[in-house]
Amino acid sequence: MTSDHWDPKDLPTQEGKTFVVTGGNAGIGYFISEQLAEAGARIILASRSEQKAEIAAASIRTFAPGTIVDFVRLDLTSLASIHDAADAIRKYGPIDGLINNAGVTTGGRKREITRDGMELVMGANAFGPFALSALTLSTLAPHGRIVSQASQATQVVKLDPSNLQSEQGKFNFFRAYGYSKHSVLAFAFELQRRLTAAASTIESLLAHPGIAIDLKSPRRPGIIDKRKPYDYLSALYAQGKDRGAWTAVRAATDPNAKGGDYYGPRGRVAGRAVRIEAAASSASEEFGQEFWRQAESATGVKFDFGD
Predict the structure, then answer these.
(1) CB 76 within 8 A of CB 82
(2) Which among 241, 270, 280, 148 is positioned nearest to 203, based on CA atoms?
(3) Ordered domains of the chain (ranges, CATH)
(4) Pairing relationship of beta strands 262-265 and 273-275 according to DSSP bridges
């Protein structure tokens, strides 16, 4: 299997490997989990709802009989929950991949903050995954991967590093979401720079799912069994969430992938997973260092690269 001929339906075996998938109980995260399980992996679903995780686990076992699926409670808007989740994940021993998929995708007109004082969207989508990754880095196996879930919103929202937490001006959810996804890119690239500098064999990669909707997704009772009215507006060009999972799964499993690689759909919004380029502003070392500074300040968490 070469990097130029990636078949998302014929993955390299993942037997003996363990993956943590945040938000793995629903949407794209569910299909990431299902596809990894079908390739033979053990799955740890990290999410807020144990009840929803149990439904997802039962569904995964239907399509990948015999799969071991575990649950870790995780709320990315709570630093206490992130610390507890990291403690739980460490008990599973070496993990081969942490897929930071979960995050906030919808919101209102008013700026909200987490219980730890962070703007909600930035906290859940960027600062939370930063903290979880830092706290579980030592649990990753040699050559393990951290995969961060990005978005095309970075192509639409102009980056403002001085306003990542939307403290200036009138709050706009989509802009806040765009800032958070710029920050995800900055985190993943800067993490790879620091891993390389520390001579670590752990790798940081990125993916974005394109536009993935329930309407085009296979039905999974209790997980994907409703059709949202606005899905019909994007049905002509969007893809299902099962296909939206392909990019993260490739980033996690392609033996030819390397740290710093970024995968997206071939057709930008839909299609097979291919390597793509990030927005220059997001990928810059300058912004990477600035995001890192803000993330450490907001979370009180620092990475230990063993140097």
Answers:
(1) yes
(2) 148
(3) 18-298 (3.40.50.720)
(4) antiparallel
- How far is 207 from 166, CA to CA, in rounded Å? 25
Please, are residues 123 and 77 in contact by the beta-carbon 8 Å criterion? yes
Q: Which residues pair with 275 in a beta bridge?
A: 263
Inter-residue contact 257 to 288 (CB < 8 Å): no
3-state secondary structure of 203: strand
Q: What is the pTM for the complete model shown?
A: 0.95
- Answer yes or no: 237 catalytic: no
Closest alpha carbon to 210 in 124, 258, 269: 269
* pLDDT tens track for 136-156: 999 999 999 999 999 988 888
**β-bridge partners, 212:** 239
Catalytic residue among 177, 179, 262, 263: 177
Whole-Å CA distances, 275 to 5, 30, 47, 251, 258: 12, 23, 28, 9, 11
Q: Locate the DSSP E strands across the chain.
A: 18-22, 42-47, 69-73, 95-100, 140-149, 203-207, 212-213, 239-240, 262-265, 273-275
The gap from C-alpha 304 to its chain's centroid, in whole angstroms, comes to 21
Q: Nearest CA to 21 among 67, 66, 79? A: 67
Residues 199-221: pLDDT tens digits?
999 999 999 999 998 889 999 99
**What's the Cα-to-Cα distance from 251 to each of 99, 137, 273, rounded to whole Å?**
9, 17, 9
Average pLDDT score over residue span 189-195: 98
Q: Which two three-digit tokens encode residue 17?
A: 């490997």
What pLDDT is stored for residue 2 in this prediction? 37
Degrees, nearest 5: CA angle 264-239-3:
35
* 2 three-state secondary structure: coil
